[in-house]
Specification:
The protein is mainly alpha-helical. The protein has three domains: 2-66 and 241-254, Rossmann fold (3-Layer(aba) Sandwich), CATH 3.40.50; 72-233, DNA Methylase, Chain A, domain 2, CATH 3.90.120.10; 262-490, no CATH class. The protein has helices at residues 14-25, 72-76, 97-100, 111-117, 138-145, 206-212, 225-234, 238-254, 262-275, 289-299, 304-314, 320-325, 327-334, 340-355, 365-371, 376-385, 402-412, 422-434, 440-451, 472-484, 486-490, and strands at residues 2-3, 29-36, 44-45, 47-54, 102-104, 127-129, 181-182. It has a three-stranded antiparallel β-sheet with strand order 1-4-2. The chain has a two-stranded parallel sheet with strand order 3-7. A two-stranded antiparallel sheet has the order 5-6. Helix 10 (289-299) crosses helix 11 and helix 17 (402-412) packs across helix 18. It is globular. The structure holds a DNA duplex.
DNA sequence: ATCCGGGGCA
DNA sequence: TGCCCCGGAT
């Protein structure tokens, strides 16, 4: 399956988790990833979500690509010069200039161009079809003349900005000969301003759009230009399909079995969490949502023994009012933990919530967020421990924190750059381990706890981890590291 | 700041 | 259909 990344990366990632769950249930292995199709030779910055499910749990190995990027020049540099509004006149049927018209074509230069020209009938070797463009307005022609690939809409002279420059900063975009095209979207059927030709004063032709989507020149498009543009923009780039298809074929021939299922990992995590006696983050078992708020606000990132000490104090505060009533005790208790300042923060939060007449146990995430006194991450966690009623259609966020992403990326053997990839690969990996409906609640909390205790940043204590049987890190490096440094391995304190 | 989407009218 | 315009989500 291919789709836009947003399909998988919404807050709760419920669609993805359900798909994985049901496919695994049917006996498939599942692999998913957000890929830049430029890695497969597509001359665009076009990131897409891919999901591959193979029958009989055959493990999928992603294509590695050859690392060669196709530039715009390599993709369309061989196509003949064109004027805006041009329609071919030398077609087979003069009354149907678009469908049958063609322009004189010389010959392919780059490897990519030769691939695009393959498969043409002999009588079409000197022709290129569908090389048609929109007319260009006089003011646009003037604007295009002033632009290079880095020019922004707001850089243009005032009189050439027909659209409101406060909302459109990327209304126009000139392609860069030596770069990637921006994503060819179906919107190109409406206007072509994101695809101004690198050096000609016009937007790109149907054939140029097709080339950037890696459609060979023998592929023709049905209907008028707007329809052709829409077909092209909505397509999966054939070259991406080819790359993934080849990888699927390889995987099927290798026929290696996947060593885990999401459901099993999720079950192990949940069971581990429920049997864990004392937690590094005790407020993962807060009896009320407010207690989780208090714990995370006052005690986050403290060493486990210290956090547990503090928790004895705040665990006796089930609601904001009880916190206010115990304000002195709160200040006195938190000060020696180095969190005296957090006591005042908490009291502010508590009184704001009380004043607003909101009960955190009944409130929606949006209502608490709107108060503006709670950190978003704290709200996320509180609703993770005590999920809401999903009145807004969401089901709580998948928490891609440094800790959960560390566990998940170690498990899958990915070296996740914690800052750059946390929003994509990291979140996908976390969602996988949480799984579908059955154990996801406790598995989610287990990941948080694991990342803050057993699966520590330095040398993790893999021997204590419920996932060590199928974890890529544990089975390759984890136990080895512990043998080298048993002192570190025994350190279960979990300072992040 | 970047990456996309859609409604209205001749 | 083609062209014009006005946005939103992250």
């Amino acid at each position: 399956m291919e789709n836009v990344p947003d399909m998988a990366l919404d807050r709760g990632m419920w669609i993805l988790r359900t798909m994985v769950d049901e496919l695994e249930e049917l006996g498939y292995s599942v692999a998913e990833r957000v890929m830049s199709t430029s890695d497969l030779g597509v001359p665009q910055f076009r990131q897409r979500f891919f999901l591959v499910a193979l029958r009989d749990r055959v493990a999928f190995r992603w294509p590695t690509g050859d690392g060669v990027r196709t530039s715009v020049r390599n993709a369309i540099g061989d196509l003949p010069q064109l004027e805006g509004g041009w329609r071919p006149r030398n077609g087979d049927d003069p009354d149907d200039p678009v469908a049958s018209g063609w322009a004189e074509y010389a010959e392919p230069v780059s490897t990519f161009q030769k691939r695009m020209r393959a498969g043409l009938p002999a009588e079409h070797q000197r022709r290129v079809y569908d090389h048609v463009t929109r007319p260009v307005r006089d003011d646009d022609a003037e604007a295009f003349a002033l632009m290079d690939s880095s020019t922004r809409y707001s850089d243009l002279p005032e009189e050439l900005q027909r659209y409101r420059d406060d909302i459109f900063d990327d209304k126009y975009k000139r392609l860069d000969w030596d770069g990637l095209s921006r994503t060819i979207v179906a919107h190109i059927a409406k206007d072509g301003y994101w695809y101004i030709h690198p050096d000609q004063p016009r937007t790109i032709s149907v054939r140029e759009a097709a080339r950037l989507q890696t459609f060979p020149d023998h592929v023709r498009f049905s209907g008028p230009p707007t329809s052709a543009f829409r077909q092209i923009g909505n397509a999966v780039p054939p070259m991406a399909g080819e790359g993934l298809g080849a990888a699927i074929l390889d995987s099927l021939l290798t026929a290696e079995r996947e060593g885990f299922t999401t459901a099993e990992a999720s079950r192990l995590l949940a069971r581990w969490f429920r049997s864990r006696e004392s937690l590094a983050i005790p407020w993962l078992r807060g009896a009320t949502r407010w207690q989780t708020v208090v714990g995370e606000t006052a005690l986050s990132r403290l060493p486990a023994p210290v956090a547990q000490l503090g928790w004895r104090l705040v665990a006796a505060m089930p609601n904001p009012n009880s916190t206010i009533l115990a304000s002195d005790a709160l200040r006195l208790g938190l000060a020696p933990l180095g969190r005296g300042d957090r006591a005042n923060d908490l009291l502010d939060i508590a009184s704001t919530i009380e004043t607003a007449g909101i009960d955190p146990e009944d409130a929606t995430e949006a209502e608490l967020r709107a108060l503006g006194v709670l950190a978003p991450a704290v709200i996320d966690l509180a609703y993770r421990v005590h999920p809401g009623l999903a009145d807004d259609g969401s089901d709580g966020a998948v928490l891609a924190t440094v800790a959960t992403v560390r566990v998940a990326s170690r498990y899958f053997g990915e070296s996740v750059d914690e800052n750059r990839n946390r929003l994509t690969e990291g979140r996908l990996a976390v969602a996988r381990l949480i799984g579908g409906e059955d154990h996801s609640h406790d598995a989610h909390l287990a990941l948080l706890e694991l990342g803050n205790s057993v699966c520590s940043p330095g040398v993790p204590a893999c021997a204590q981890c419920p996932l060590s049987g199928s974890c890529a890190f544990a089975t390759t490096r984890g136990f080895q590291l512990q043998l080298l440094d048993p002192a570190d391995a025994a350190d279960d304190v979990g300072i992040v």
